[in-house]
Amino acid sequence: MEMTCVNSLSSFIHHGMIFVPLGVRPVFEDLVEIDQVHGGSPWCSGTIAALDGSRLPSELELRIARCQGEDFARAAKRLI
């Protein structure tokens, strides 16, 4: 998943997208959690799904996603 994000960025940014990456500072401890399988990277939040879509995001993945959403909202607010 991380390479998909990285490879897509140049096209999106050329078309004017504003990219607000997750980064590692606010969620470092969550991203390096090794006691459970989880999605997410410094590029963006994410989840790992079962082939049939039955696996829901874990609390850890939701916490990472909330952090990215809050960062995005702060960046958007500065543009208004």
From TrEMBL:
This protein's GO CC annotations: membrane
Stored InterPro entries: Flavoprotein-like_sf
GO molecular function annotations of the record: NAD(P)H dehydrogenase (quinone) activity
SUPFAM superfamilies documented for this protein: Flavoproteins (SSF52218)
Family: Belongs to the WrbA family.
Name of the protein described by the UniProt record: Unnamed protein product
